[in-house]
Amino acid sequence: MGDKPVIGFIGLGLMGHGMAKNIRKAGYELWVRGRSNRTPVESLLSMGASEAASPRDMAERCDIILICLSTSAQVEAVIGAEDGILAGARPGLIVIDTSTADPGSTAKLAAELTSRGMHMVDAPLGRTPKEAEEGTLDAMVGCDDALFERVRPVIECWAGRITRTGAVGSGHKMKLLMNFIGMSYGALYSEAVTLGAKIGISPQMIREVIGPSRLGNGFFETFMRYVVDRDRDAHKFAISNAAKDLRYINNMAADAQVMSVMASAARHYYTHVEATGHGDDYVPMLSDHVAALNGIVMEDEVRKGAAPGGK
Q1: 173: annotated active-site residue
Q2: How crowded is the C-beta side of 198, counted as CA atoms within 13 Å?
Q3: Of 15, 60, 86, 174, which is most buried with the most CB atoms under 10 A?
Q4: How confident is the model at residue 34 (pLDDT cuts 50, 70, 90)?
């Protein structure tokens, strides 16, 4: 691998497009592989990227391949399928999985790659598509010291804060812990604003009191920007992805023989919304679904809170 490795990128969704764009802007030769949505692909091609015919084709051309997909099953497919990365890979190839993945799957993939002279790095993401476009995401990186120094310049293209968490797999574990906290916040806030509406405390009042207090945080701010301001794009993270992450979290707890009362409880809300056909809703919209379970239309409660004399 020379001074400027050839980079491949698989998964050009809300996060992936911005990440790939920033890699290309840094001057790397870039090969991309999208899905049915051609818009991000065409955007990157217009910047000088090239399109790979398959993951196998990409592996034959690239020194480092980044993957940014929704599930471990998808990651396993692009690596192990007949036309996957393994079919075209050569010793020395580095695969960086930036997905939020099942650590058990990560361990198996890492072992498979290592057995063939390749390397696996997990580097899941923190923050939102806005920061992906700006190149200021957080990255939690699992790999050994020597490999970390080799991949760091590429990760720096799209990450403003990089934390090496330990050996391969540790990044995905850390990311699941982070999402356990975040998605539990979502369930907690949804119940709180619903209970508030039932007892005459408006969502506006909850934001006014909690926001500046020690209980306020960035997640609360974006969550309440949807609840109160009805900003649909305040936090663009799908409920289906949240439900998946909570399944992985509960699996991780089961493997570790740890009770997971909170993680199990949070999972039920997201699973319910996904099961009723609303998995594409974003996480703050969970508040509408929890409200509906309790006979409340949250948008009506916001209007009441905005009226003169509203609570």
Answers
A1: no
A2: 13
A3: 15
A4: confident
